[in-house]
Amino acid sequence: MAAPPPALARRERAALCDLMDRVGADAPTLCAGWTTYDLAAHLALREGSPLAVAGAVFPPLERLTNRSMEKTKARTPYVDLVDQVRKGPPLLSPFRPSPVDRAANAVEYFVHHEDVLRCQPGWTRRELDRRDQDSLWARVAALGRMLARRATVGIELVRTDTSDVRRIRSGEPTLVVRGLPGELVLFAYGRGAVSDVEVEGDRDAQDAFDHSQLGL
Question: Which of 28, 33, 100, 187 is the most buried (most CB within 10 A)?
């Protein structure tokens, strides 16, 4: 019997690192103001010194996070940072246990993979299999309310390959967003401008909504 494929988190990590190796340190990303060098520093710090990147979700610590990233880049060449990320969480990292890695890193590395990929000339959308789509749907269902906490309208996600529905923000008027789970994940993480989704629902909701209201 053939061995099952590696978990989505591990495959997305490897694919992202391969892509970062190909495009180099100065390639753009969808993370505002970040190059691939910045992204590599962020990912290495996230797993090695999680408090150093707290500014990504807690604005008062943003300056500390920026300084930590700059120090990391100053002392570690880009290729070494990418290699560090490729090897996975350090031995004592809270992300090291496999269940934590699967739960916390599948979406993290999928989104950042797309952050780099969708800035490349002539990029095309990847086709994910049903198992990976299910994994991403489970994570957006679990994280959706946190990601949509700043939204000023109700938001309902509709999975187009199964018709499953998940409301990630209560309230009226309501925005209805349809797409495959991977694209809905990108939408929920604030990448709606490049996600392959259909936005429907109340006109007032569409007028009031802005992509900056979503994400960490």
Answer: 187
Residue 28's DSSP bridge partners are 35
Which whole number is the average pLDDT over 198-209?
89
- The size of the chain, in residues, is 216
Strand 165-169, strand 174-179: pairing: unpaired
Strand order in the sheet with 198-201: 165-169, 154-159, 174-179, 198-201
Q: How confident is the model at residue 202 (pLDDT cuts 50, 70, 90)?
A: confident
Q: Tally Cβ neighbours within 10 Å of residue 4.
A: 7
Rg (C-alpha) for the chain, rounded Å, is 17
Residue 76 has pLDDT above 90, yes or no: yes
- Do the strands 174-179 and 154-159 form a parallel or antiparallel pair, or are they unpaired? parallel
30 CB contacts (<8 Å, ≥6 apart)?
114, 115, 116, 118, 119, 191, 194
Question: Facing residues of 179 across strands?
Answer: 159
